[in-house]
Amino acid sequence: MSLDSTWRLLQRQGIFEHHPAFLFVNPPADALVQSPHSSWRLYAHERAYQAPGTLLPSEQVSAHFEYTTQCDAAVVFLPKEKKLSDFILAQLAHQLPLHTQVYIVGPNDGGIRSFAKKAIPGFAPLQKVGSGNHCQLLTTELVHQQDFVAEQHLKKQNIVFQERQYPLAFLPGVFGEGRLDAGTAFFLEHMPASVSGRVLDFGCGSGVISYWLQQHRNLEHMMAADLSTLATSAAAHTLAACQTPYEVRLSDGFYAISETFDWIVTNPPFHQGKATDYEITSRFIAELKQHLNPGGQVVMVANSFLPWPNLLQASFQHVQTLAKNNRFTITLAR
Fold this sequence. Notes:
Layout: H1 5-13, E1 22-25, E2 38-41, E3 59-61, E4 73-77, H2 82-95, E5 101-107, H3 112-115, E6 127-132, E7 135-141, E8 155-161, E9 164-170, H4 182-189, E10 197-202, H5 208-216, E11 219-226, H6 229-239, E12 246-250, E13 261-266, E14 271-272, E15 275-276, H7 279-287, E16 292-303, H8 308-313, E17 319-324, E18 328-333
Parallel strand pairs: 1-2, 1-4, 2-3, 4-5, 10-11, 10-13, 11-12, 13-16
Antiparallel strand pairs: 5-7, 6-7, 8-9, 14-15, 16-18, 17-18
């Protein structure tokens, strides 16, 4: 298991001694959960820590939880997004057996202080049972099971860009919920006209770039990929009406992608939680070339302070800046 600050707090409080089988919800990326414990993960990080193509029967990687492995208690590692926290607990209130004890742990600067004051439908009032390592540990109990309708948490909205409407779908925790973020808008404004053929949209989020490309470029096939189950689920809804053949793929970088492409377009992630994290995209850039067809190209938008152009130059002979403003840089590599 991960020995990050939240995990160390759980160990110090001795909660594992009281419950033989835990459900770990949204655990740290490097946490390997073994029987009799089980886990529900929202991100595909763990695929980089296991033998290729394997998942333990006790591990779920999904936007929607199904209670299939019995547990005595649950531990929720609190995400920083408030709507995502509500989304997770609403599903637990529907799926967990009545009177299941639920622990909630998170860093002080990640929102747990304000979360401790919340009333959570179906659960008893939260109680603080531990603190340390700049974290807090709360506990509650499921006292009333709740109905859960997944469609009520799926937000569909028409986003206006250059006087056209684009119907997008969002789930809690998906980047850019309910809007077109400035980086993506800048990217679409300067998207090369030659993007065509077999295209990969890495870090697809809600699927806005994939949807736009299918409307405005001559594509043979589109793959939209993300390590977030919330993103891939939302993107599948966004792309459902598209005519071009497409696939939505859950993958941590290229871990679950073996195909090659004519173009790879990306607005790549660079943060995990509150801390800046370059690992995912650095690894992705190092593997780009082997996933391009002959003559294939990469086009990327990113915050201008990020080191991606330098990393691209280490792998590609030709790297150029297509556009730049005071916040973002668009880079082409071939």
